[in-house]
Amino acid sequence: MACTLSEAAEASLLQHNPDLRRCPADDVVIIGCGGHQVTPKAIYDVDVVAYDCKMVVPMLVVPGQTDDMILGSNAIKKILELMRKTDSYWRLVSEPSGGSDEDCHRFFSLLSNTERWRGDTVPDKVGTLKLQQCVTLQPQSEHLVWGKLPASAPISVGSTVVVEPTQSRCRSSKVLVGRVVTPMWGDRWLPIKVMNPTSEPVVLKRNTKLADVFPCIAAEDLSQPDHIQAFPQSVTGAPVTRSKEDVRRALDELGLQDLDLDACEVSDLWRERLCQIIERYEAIFSRHKLDCGEASDFVHKIHLVDERPFHLPYRRLPPNHYEKLRTAISDMEEKGIIRKSNSEYASPLVLVWKKNGDLRICTDFRCLNAKTVRDAHPLPHQADALAALGGNAYFSTMDLTSGFYNVPLHEDHKKYTAFSSPFGLHEYNRMPQGLSNSPATFMRMMLSIFGDENFTSLLCYLDDLMVFAPTEQLALERLEMVFSCLKKHNLKLAPKKCYLLRKTVSFLGHVITGSGVQTDPGKVEAIGQVQVSDLMDSDGVTPSQKKIRSFLGMVLYYQHFIEDCSAKATPLFKLLSEQKAGGKARRGWKSKKKCHSSVKLTPDDWTPECRVAFDTLKHDLLHTVTLAHPDFGKPFILAVDASFDGIGAVISQLQPGDMGKLQEFDITFTNNKVVYSPGESISGTVNITSGNSLQYKAIKVNCLGSCGVSNKMNDTTWAVEEQYFSSTLAVADKGTLAQGEHSFPFQFLIPASAPTSFEGPFGKITYRVRAVIDTSRFSKDYKAQKPFYLLNLLNLNEVPEIEQPSSAVMTRKFTYLLVKTGILMLKARSDLRGYTPGQVIRLATEIHNKSGKDTGCVLASLIQKVTYKTKRAIYDLRTIAEVEGAGVKAGKHAEWKEQIIVPPLPQSVLAGCSLIEIDYFIQVSLKSPDAVVTLPIYIGNIAINVTPSRNTPAPPSPPPHAPPRPTPRASPGGVTPSAPPAEEDEELGAGGLVSEEIPTKSHSQQDQSAQLPCLSPSAFSYAPGLTFSQNQQRCDTPAPSGPLFCVSTGATIPFFSDGSATPVPTSCPLILPPEYSTWDYPHEPPPTYEESCSSNNSSFSGRQ
């Protein structure tokens, strides 16, 4: 808000300063808090002095304003900006309100919206809040509780304090305490925000310490917006960019002539800025090979398991090496890397000559390392380091000068590093190479220096550094950050090994670019020059295990660039194996120690397969591709596969314009149908969406059924596997797949017979349709597959006693009218134990009602039970057909005979998937009293070979209209006795039971009004092409709606009334079970039976 004046103040101001310049304010509108808009009359630039701060402030004259002047936030911000430049401001805000001017106190309280501490001194801590009563915190909720300060705590009524979580150990770890800014009252009670993030209630006991209280002395930081800040600038002209020659000359003056900035792949502007940064941090670059830094705050220590000294003599040297060794030792001693020693330890010296002829002094620390306690600090994984480079375009690699020499040794542990030479005994002041814990110490130091920047803006692998960034500016900022950290810890870089702001660099034996990771051409070329003779012993014909192992080590370093690298190198690995053909492998840890020399190779061991493997690995290594950087902002593809040889997984990612030319490649079945019968046709389409054009030799679809046997239960290794049917169809010949969507239809005929010898706990049967795009040589073949399932054919002849009747009986004792007792016996019997679709189930039921109460209706149901063998078994019961009869009168013996038609139904299990079992049974139930008997039955596709025990009359052609059903006979009513007997069954038994027939009230398969719909074959219909037994009775004269006993879908089945040889025509709508789709089969329960049957496939409403 701007500063404003009233009209009275304007008049007084013009009276004392008539020359004050007035500016119009027509384009200014002031909006109040309530939304009221006011247009100022004028604007004046007024000199204002507030709190010893003088400034020129624009003032708006507002009509109707009662206050003479309102100081706006623009002036307040300026006042704070000027006051913060003085020491008195910070002293003022830190003092209690009693020690400062009252106007200043009101001003700061207004700014910070807080009341400062009143009193002589401001305490560091007011006190700790305790609960005065037990509190229960509800789970996953926030609560406001009240704590009380102790009586000894200082009090400043009205002052603002900060309530923070206490540092006391007695605070519960299950709750979170929030920070609260609140005024202090005189009763010492303060609010506390407490959260219970757990899923259970938490009880806080009385006197629990929750929070600490501190005085609030901070003022609100009102910084000026960017658009009103002013900074003095002196513009002397446009910036001048130095040329490459000027940059090179500037580096030469600094002694950094080995630092090459001409190869930086950035513009001259950023090269100039990089040169300025180097000039600012020129101290971190070494001037010679032993000009290494000395890290501060880091030291290497050597911990031994025992202090027993050891001393080994130095090794003899050629006389012409003495002078060079003397010079090298003198240089190292002059630079403070080593010093003269009086140690009781001594290790021998080892001379290593570099490619350029320089001498590198090393030490054989094997005895010292054997006594050293190992440091477990890990080194970064190479794959993790390379995976962090995605999305970057500019890379800078650097190397520390004499990397390990940058770390000093602990004074007490220098004696352990003593080494002997012809020039005496010396010991190291810096951490040398060759110590077992040197890499761990150095890696710990580097991670401590760069912290969270590792894997985010840089990679650190021992003394090798890589800084990466997506833009030039960010790359320069990160380089400056690295230089600052190195300077802070006194570390130095080797200028000759610094490659700054490049788009292509070498790091960890790989070539890094913005598009991906490649193999190092120099190293690959060296591997490609290896000949077969280089892998042989001195005789030239016997393969050498040591040389083969060295060759495989070089190749396997780039194994990610070679497809199926391990499989291709198998013949060479066999040469390194301890076990030879015809021999036995040793067991135990001793054999592992001698595995390199336990087998003596012969010239015959180098087979043609070894030569092919050797040539193939070299060829593939010379023709590798670029591995793209992963983009963690995009989805990944996880591909898993298993075979009889092993199991593996690959995680990949589609790259634009490179990998994965196919955006979609899948198989869909017609109507998403995955359950079929043997002999049925399976059809579908192969769907392909191509992002780019793809050349192919053929597109083939294969329908495959395979089976296998294992020697053990749940064994993943199958000893026998064979294909009992396989059919391949070429849906497209050689050509080019254009960009866009493509679909190729296919259709196969499933064989009518399926193997059964592989079923059971030790066998498996799988069915699948596979599609393959066969591409040209050295190209990627694309594959897709989809499984399906077949119905098992149940042969009723394999069920024992299938032609015998099935019966069940139960007796129920019940109480009615509170004191009366009766007995009910329910008996049900079917004519057979198994049926085929289209047959009639003859059901006979007997009911003995030994009571004085009439029973409820009797109900017979054909029920299907589907069991899903998931982790927790799920059962789904479906009623196929129902027949309802009348009840039984008191003291009566009644018989009830009915028939149920078997529609086409699925078989017992699905071949290829043992997670589903289907069972059938007939359930006869009686209500009031409740009684149930169950008759298990079998429904199969292959009929029995014996004639049924019952004689089924051959019915004539059905009449055009069905005769009316017989009228049920009226049952005599029961007589209620005058007094209830103790046991009524004895009284009824004395008089005997009267037998009668129970009339049928309703039949779900008899619907005269419904017309037979035209049904399409289902996956659960009978198997086409099956031959049925000759003794199965069929109707030679076809009925108008279908042949008699025909198992084809939509047949009309004759229904025989009791005691009549003439069938009653019944329009029998066949009930089709659901067709399972791939996403709900078999782990999720399918829909209910009514939901799976459409209105066209059902003419009745079954009761569940």
TrEMBL record:
Q: Which GO terms describe its molecular function?
A: RNA-DNA hybrid ribonuclease activity
Q: Which InterPro entries match?
A: Arrestin-like_C, Arrestin-like_N, Arrestin_C-like, DNA/RNA_pol_sf, Ig_E-set, Rev_trsase/Diguanyl_cyclase, RT_dom, RT_RNaseH_2
Q: Where is the composition biased (Pro residues)?
A: 953-969
The protein's superkingdom reads Eukaryota
GO terms for biological process, alphabetical: nervous system development
Compositionally biased spans, kind Low complexity: 1092-1104
EC number of the protein: 3.1.26.4
> Which parts of the sequence are annotated with region: Disordered?
950-989, 1079-1104
Pfam families attached to this UniProt entry: Arrestin_C, Arrestin_N, RT_RNaseH_2, RVT_1
The UniProt record lists the Reverse transcriptase domain at: 333-512
Instruction: Indicate the family of this protein.
Output: Belongs to the beta type-B retroviral polymerase family. HERV class-II K(HML-2) pol subfamily. Belongs to the arrestin family.
State what protein this is by name.
ribonuclease H
Tell me the organism's taxonomic lineage.
Eukaryota, Metazoa, Chordata, Craniata, Vertebrata
